[in-house]
Design brief:
The complex is a heterotrimer.
Chain A (H helix, E strand, L loop, with lengths): L12 E6 L8 H9 L19 E6 L9 E6 L9 H4 L5 E2 L8 E2 L9 H5 L6 E2 L26 E2 L5 H13 L15 H5 L5 E5 L6 H5 L5 E2 L11 E4 L3 H6 L17
Parallel strand pairs in A: 1-10
Antiparallel strand pairs in A: 1-8, 2-3, 4-5, 6-7, 9-10
Chain B lengths: L1 H6 L6 H22 E4 L7 H6 L4 H4 L14 H8 L7 H11 L45 E4 L11 H10 L6 H4 L2
Antiparallel strand pairs in B: 1-2
Helix pairs in contact in B: 5-6
Chain C lengths: L4 H16 L3 H13 L13 E8 L6 E8 L2 E7 L17 H4 L10 E5 L2 E4 L2 H12 L9 E5 L6 H11 L6 E3 L3 H11 L5 E4 L6 E5 L10 H10 L10 E6 L4 H4 L3 E4 L5 H14 L9 H9 L3 H8 L4 H12 L3 E5 L8 H14 L9 E4 L16 E2 H10 L6 E5 L10 H9 L3 E6 L11 E4 L8 E4 L8 E5 L13 H11 L9 H12 L3 H5 L4 E2 L11 H4 L11 E7 L24 E2 L2 E6 L1 H7 L6 E6 L2 E9 L7 E5 L25 E2 L6 E2 L4 E6 L1
Parallel strand pairs in C: 6-7, 6-15, 7-14, 9-10, 9-12, 10-11, 15-16, 16-17, 21-26, 23-25
Antiparallel strand pairs in C: 1-2, 2-3, 4-5, 4-17, 8-13, 18-19, 19-20, 21-29, 22-23, 24-25, 24-29, 27-28
Helix pairs in contact in C: 4-16, 5-16, 6-13, 9-10, 9-11, 9-12, 9-13, 14-15
Chain lengths: 262, 182, 690
């Protein structure tokens, strides 16, 4: 029932991240943690165990000083047009069939088999190795926008989907059209807080939304485009080496690019 | 052979029927009683009296400016009228003394309680009658008994996922996980 | 009729069959399935109306103008305030974690009294306040017996503290934690001017940052980031160039058009070599000391530049061409980690603005005159004395305070030669820490008086360092009742002063702030609602500081000694705040791995030092040493090791305690030639493999 038929949506929520503006400050990651109720971990340096729905990678041009350059790449879930994670789920706990094209998930149904994690080439999915234990009292600061997930469940970024629902409600309340939200009415937490405005967000199909044009810009690219998963997240960089890294297996056609920060 | 003989004439299908009927009675009459504990609301709130005062449903069960639904009103709303005892109903006295004056919110039992992972937009369902999901409370003088499932902890009236999905499917609305889950 | 075995079996079969026609099994299974999803052991969400309330979040040094989101009255997130020009909707990574920090396990929950080494017991506020008064009473009127250290650069609390000390006869006892604001203001004096320097990034079309990590941890970070972002519309051409010259390819440098790797020991040389080239290219300036300056700069030839920085002199030529082509170039001089640079590094950088005629111009360097005070007897901000020098005096017995009041500061952790400083603090008989969190200083205090979290208090911020125009922000509590048993430190001090017979004219901090707003001609209510007060953008006459610069002495390095470049990343916390729980995950595993910090150096430096990736090393300077792992990073300047600040906590919480090491332990203080200031930005360390 899921599979290789790619569904078209009238609305396609997408992100355009300007890598030349990302300073790697981390405000987006923090805002994401807060919005999505991710509990602090005792050893957050163990990146095999952490949950980072949005992860800011550090990329390097691999040149020696003084020609070294770095760039930061925030990686949310790509909300692929043709997601690799959805068809492999044995319990239909994840799917992509809602207007807007966000790959959705239901936590209580997830059996933790992690097929989706294996399938996702962007490593956007995370497995809860621990229960979400917050320091005493900190559960009072939980965000109402995302339910807490127990150990044994896979999770990922959903473009702060609850905010989408809220934006539609607000449009209905104020006489707007929930099916044609104005630019900026719905904004994920990361895009909202970014101090340099590196993250643009909107409907890729709506010409009134900035991302509509930005995604078509000459310096725009998507990660691992050759896999034809059709991500709804675009990146922009004037730096050629950065754009090349966006499809870093493409040069040779096989994996083997150097390990980046996980 | 001997055993068979002994049994001849002792009941035929009767024990089966007795067992069958007993199970039906137990299953349909006793089981629901056992399965649910009965709870009453902390304050005997009368919708009827409030309606007779000319209050509209939407006067208390309002949509906020951001389109979210306020649900059951909080003290802030109730105390607009009931900061002090108004009438002679003992239930009002209970409310004023135990809640309005102490600032404690009333721990109302929610008949349609949904878990944290469910997100339901009342605004999106505004065109439907409230009573298509909720009991009609307008004429209600004593809040209905709250039947709580001893195993799952949910109220008897809580809507199940299949109901949501069926209506969405019938009306061509998405049944994507995130349509209802967060 | 008896029931035999066969009859019983029939009965049971009938019962089972009947059950199948009842809801028992089906509903039971359904309920069990529902029950299995209840997950009662994980926390539940809070319900209620979602609101957003304006607040001043002084968790970062500048303070963010935020909107605190609450659900049913409980704060759960902080976002930028789109209406406030300091935020424009942006928020820094520390303030974004503000709601969770309110419930940080490191919070001091009630007043505490020291009852033994490292042992504390909770006491009542009335007892705590009585204890404070009792300790201060006999010292009243004795000069130098009461001292205070404030870590708040911008709050009116400093006025109360300094005025209280003056009123009790210890007028000289007020000190501030070293911040660039103070050394830069002294630098302006050395240039014959007056006021706190500001930098109009918004109006500039070329921003050269020498050391100053302006897009991550220097100055009003969020405002700077917004100004930077505005010049680079996505998908269009940039309208301004940003160039970073500093020891590390840090967050700021990562987005700059050009990064020039300048060792921290060569900052002044870099600025003066640039001045030399600019003068050669025809730059002249009417300042009276231009002749001297020109002669001084002439010594910093391209060859000298190459020697001092390890860079090719072509980069200098390229830079001069870019500056010449720019309409509104701006030079921001600062220490890459916001302190310890001394005044000369600042003067050298700032003199370029004078040389280019950029002082007081749009997109140039500005001067902010002192703001009117709420309390007349308070110390002037520009004359603030620094805590590092003070504790050095305590160590040698030149200063002998009996009581030390520490307000929003963490001198036991965040002063150079941290070990010596903590020891010096031990010499002081009675230490009071007004702190929100159990930091290293609170952990050695005799009395801890818990301060409210920013969402629980009134506070203000006057002219955060780096702003171009006079700027004032103020905030009031977001929540009605603090979540811990806290009191505002200023309220406590005002009450204590009252008991000692000293009236400062106010009873609460809120009143002080309202008076401050009034003195400025601002409306407190509008400020508390998320507003801002701004004065005019101004300049002033400045010399090139040739006299002071002539005294600059170069730093000598030998084979085993390398320059130390502390790196500050705001997300990882500040001196006063260990990495917030919601930010732990932002720290990379190339920076902190388990309990080991990774120090960064380029491959050439690693080779010189005889170390390779992953080696455990010891860095030593003075009496201090830290241990770390080597991580090769080509973004570090020649002959320099870079080390992150904010780690190696000995107090705080389970998330940060004992993780990594504290770079302050190996920052060594020296006297700056000609200015008498204590400096440590050019610290050097010895590296040994272990």
């Amino acid at each position: 029932m899921h599979g290789h038929v790619e569904r078209e949506f009238k609305i396609t929520w997408g992100m355009v991240i300007d890598l030349d503006k990302c300073t790697g400050c981390g405000a987006c990651m923090t805002a994401c943690q807060v919005e999505n109720n991710i509990a602090p971990m005792l050893d957050a340096s163990n990146k095999l165990r952490t949950l980072s729905w949005l992860l800011v990678f550090e990329m390097s041009n691999k040149k020696a000083a003084p020609d070294a350059e770095i760039a930061y790449l925030p990686r949310p879930c790509m909300q692929c047009g043709n997601p690799a994670c959805v068809p492999v789920c044995p319990v239909v706990a994840t799917d992509k069939n809602e207007e807007g094209g966000i790959v959705s998930q239901i936590y209580p149904r997830c059996i933790g088999c992690r097929y989706c994690m294996a399938a996702c080439p962007y490593h956007a999915r995370y497995f809860n190795w621990e229960d979400p234990i917050f320091p005493k009292g900190m559960e009072k600061a939980l965000s109402p926008n995302t339910s807490t997930r127990p150990r044994g469940v896979v999770e990922k970024c959903n473009f702060c989907h609850t905010r989408f629902v809220q934006a539609k409600d607000k449009a209905r309340q104020t006489g707007g059209n929930p099916d044609a939200l104005p630019d900026g009415a719905y904004m994920p937490a990361c895009a909202e807080v970014c101090p340099t405005g590196a993250i643009s967000f909107g409907d890729l199909k709506n010409p009134e939304h900035k991302v509509h044009e930005l995604a078509k810009g000459k310096n725009a690219f998507r990660l691992l485009e050759k896999l034809e998963l059709h991500p709804q997240v675009y990146y922009v960089s004037k730096r050629e080496w950065v754009r090349k890294l966006g499809d870093n297996y493409a040069a040779t056609g096989k994996p083997g690019a150097e390990k980046k920060h996980s | 052979m001997e055993e068979k003989k002994q049994c001849k004439g002792c009941g035929g299908a009767l024990p089966f029927v007795i067992g069958f009927v007993a199970a039906l009675i137990a299953g349909w009459v006793l089981f629901p009683d056992l399965m649910y504990s009965k709870k009453t609301q902390p304050v005997r709130f009368s919708h009827k009296i409030h309606q007779e005062q000319g209050l509209e449903c939407a006067g208390c069960h309002t949509f906020r400016d951001d389109g979210s639904f306020a649900g059951i009103p909080t003290n802030e709303k109730c105390a607009e009228c009931h900061s002090d005892v108004q009438g002679s109903d003992p239930a009002e006295k209970v409310y004023v003394e135990q809640y309005a004056k102490t600032g404690k919110e009333v721990p109302w039992l929610i008949y349609q309680y949904q878990p944290d992972n469910v997100i339901f937009s009342h605004k999106a369902h505004e065109t439907l009658e409230c009573t298509s999901c909720h009991p009609d409370m307008a004429k209600n003088d004593t809040p209905p008994v709250f039947y709580q499932n001893r195993l799952s902890g949910y109220s008897k009236q809580t809507m199940k996922m299949w109901k949501c999905e069926r209506c969405h499917a019938e009306n061509g609305v998405s049944n994507a996980c995130h349509a209802c889950h967060k | 009729m008896g029931l035999d075995r066969r009859g019983f079996v029939k009965f049971v079969v009938g019962g089972v069959a009947g059950t199948l026609f009842t809801p028992v099994i089906w509903q039971g299974l359904d309920d069990a399935a529902t029950w299995s999803q209840n997950w009662g052991w994980i926390p539940r969400l809070n319900k209620g109306e979602v609101k957003a309330t304006s607040a001043l979040s002084k968790l970062c040094p500048t303070g963010c103008a935020v909107k605190v989101k609450t659900v049913g009255g409980l704060p759960f997130a902080a976002v930028g305030n789109t209406e406030n020009p300091m935020s424009k909707g942006g928020v820094c990574p520390v303030c974004a974690a503000g709601a969770q920090l309110m419930y940080s396990p490191a919070r001091v929950k009630s007043p505490m009294k020291k009852v033994g080494e490292g042992k504390y017991e909770p006491i009542k506020w009335e007892d705590a306040e009585a204890m404070l008064v009792e300790k201060l009473t006999p010292l009243k009127g004795q000069d130098g017996k009461i001292a205070a250290i404030s870590g708040d650069e911008t709050g009116s609390a400093n006025e109360v503290l300094s005025a209280m000390l003056a009123g009790l006869g210890s007028g000289g006892g007020f000190h501030v934690m070293p911040g660039e604001m103070f050394t830069a203001t002294k630098g302006v004096k050395l240039m014959g001017g007056n006021g706190q320097p500001g930098f109009d990034i918004e109006g500039a079309d070329l921003v050269l940052m020498i050391g100053a990590d302006a897009l991550d941890s220097w100055g009003p970070t969020v405002a700077n980031q917004k100004a930077f972002g505005a010049t680079r519309p996505t998908g269009a051409d940039a309208t301004a160039q940003f160039i970073y010259a500093g020891p590390v390819l840090n967050n700021t440098a990562s987005v700059c058009d050009k990064f020039l790797a300048v060792p921290p020991t060569a900052t002044t040389a870099f600025s003066l070599a640039l001045a030399n080239q600019l003068i050669s290219a025809g730059a002249v300036c009417p300042a009276s000391d231009f002749g001297d300056y020109k002669a001084l700069a002439a010594k910093f030839t391209p060859e000298e530049f190459e020697k001092a920085t390890g860079l090719k002199s072509e980069v200098l030529k390229d830079l001069v061409a870019k500056i010449k082509a720019a309409k509104a170039p701006l030079v921001i001089a600062g220490a890459s980690f916001g302190q310890g640079a001394g005044a000369l590094d600042f003067v050298a950088g700032a003199s370029l603005n004078v040389l280019l005629g950029r002082v007081g111009q749009k997109g140039g360097m500005t001067l902010l005159s002192a703001a009117p005070k709420a309390i007349a007897s308070a110390a002037d901000r520009e004359n603030a004395k620094d805590a590092a020098s003070f504790l050095a005096q305590v160590a040698t017995g030149k200063a002998t305070p009996a009581v030390l009041l520490v307000y929003e500061a963490n001198p036991a952790y965040a002063l150079p030669q941290a070990g010596d400083m903590a020891k010096a603090m031990g010499n002081i008989g009675f230490k009071v820490s007004f702190s929100t969190y159990m930091d290293e200083t609170a952990a050695m205090a005799d009395l801890i008086l818990p301060a409210p979290h920013p969402y629980e208090r009134f506070d203000d911020a006057m002219n955060p360092y780096g702003v171009a125009k006079p700027t004032y922000l103020a905030g009031k509590p977001v929540i009605a009742k603090p979540v811990m048993d806290v009191k505002d430190p200023v309220d406590v001090m005002l009450a204590a002063a009252g008991k000692l017979g000293l009236s400062l004219g106010f009873e609460t901090y809120a009143d002080v702030i309202k008076a401050k707003a009034k003195a400025l001609g601002a409306d407190f209510d509008a400020l508390a609602a998320g507003g801002i007060w701004n004065g005019e953008l101004k300049g002033g006459a400045l010399s090139l500081g040739a006299g002071a610069l002539a005294k600059a002495a170069p730093v000598k390095l030998d084979g085993k000694t390398v320059a130390l470049a502390p790196v500050s990343k705001l997300a990882y916390g500040t001196d006063n705040l260990a990495t917030p729980p919601a930010n732990l995950l932002v720290v990379r595993d190339s920076e902190l791995l388990g309990k080991d910090l990774l120090v960064q150096m380029n491959a050439a430096t690693a080779k010189t030092l005889g170390v390779t990736e992953g080696n455990k090393i010891k860095l030593t300077a003075g009496d201090g040493e830290v241990k770390a792992l080597v991580h090769v990073n080509e973004g570090v300047a020649a002959g320099t090791v870079a080390m992150l600040m904010g780690f190696g906590r000995s107090a705080w919480d389970q998330f940060t305690k004992g993780k990594g090491d504290n770079v302050y332990k190996i920052l060594t203080v020296s006297d700056e030639a000609g200015t008498g200031l204590k400096v440590w930005a050019g610290s050097t360390v010895t590296v040994a493999k272990i």
